[in-house]
């Protein structure tokens, strides 16, 4: 076991195993998210909605709450929204401990919530507790380890980890004005923005941009989003994007999340209208002083106008004018993100066995099989270089 990190006050750990306990964390969790959260996936709203709609209680797979809270002198300083999954639910079974977010693409970054300067102590406290309870699990899928932090080195002290595929995330640090932001971009992005404006004008089209955040309008906007997101996914003469919200449970999750985030003031939906009809739309979620650009959709007939580039530009401009410090362009290394010259952050996943290294190998294999099984697009499996993270 690793030697404890020096700390004036040690963290104490509590495990939450009931839904009532999960809900009771709401006020403290929200306060910690506001102070330390940079991703929407660590918020109380996200995790409660996820557990309600996407956790599984089936014969072949059953999820159980194993949420860890870290406190210092009674104050909540960290949360690890973990669950214990048993396969099958009865009889001899394989037990994996992992973060909420085992969906296909819906949760883009899974991991813990804590202050950045507390990351090292948080992960050592977490691993101390988890390995003290190793009799309850066979493998541990530890997500959200920043490659530029101490987490990966700390993990290696406890077990011999397997490392899954890294998750790249792209973030723009915002200047004081939209004009200074545009001036600092490449010639390519400036030309793309001019082309968007000029091509619409040339065809006599006048776009209207809206930002929606009120309950009634966000509900209606989600209806449009689902239609346009599905229309984008149906395209086959371009990079294949899955329809992430094709299942009833995924759609129920999205509506529930939006309702909770609307009540908390944590959602913005950006749209472009032409002749009174929404032709492009993007959901954005607020995490502290960061605006996370989540999924999008658009009318295929308007793709030639670069409508999504235009909507992203308007979202960035909104963020600058409303005091956000960063815009997160989301995960996945594709040109729609890298062209904006963002900073790249890499998140890592360590797969650990409780008793032997073989359990980690079994977990890695199971995870990869599940990802392939859940993928809707056979083309993306046959031609993986053509598959992109849907946006």
Description:
This protein has helices at residues 19-24, 26-36, 44-54, 119-132, 151-156, 178-183, 187-202, 215-233, 248-263, 307-321, 335-338, 357-374, 378-382, and strands at residues 12-16, 62-65, 67-72, 75-80, 82-87, 94-99, 113-114, 139-146, 162-163, 167-173, 208-212, 267-274, 277-287, 290-298, 326-331, 343-353. With 391 residues, it is α+β, with helices and mostly antiparallel strands. It has two domains: 12-168 and 346-386, Gcn5-related N-acetyltransferase (GNAT) (Aminopeptidase, 3-Layer(aba) Sandwich); 170-343, Gcn5-related N-acetyltransferase (GNAT) (Aminopeptidase, 3-Layer(aba) Sandwich). The strands form two sheets. Strands 2, 5, 6, 8, 9, 10, 11, 12, 13, 14, 15 and 16 form a twelve-stranded mixed sheet that branches. Strands 1-3-4-7 form a four-stranded antiparallel sheet, with helices on both faces. The protein starts with 11 loop residues before the first strand and ends in a 9-residue tail after the last helix. Mean pLDDT is 88; it is low at 1-8 and 369-391.
Task: Write a brief caption for the model.
With 391 residues, this protein is α+β, with helices and mostly antiparallel strands. The chain has 13 helices and 16 strands.
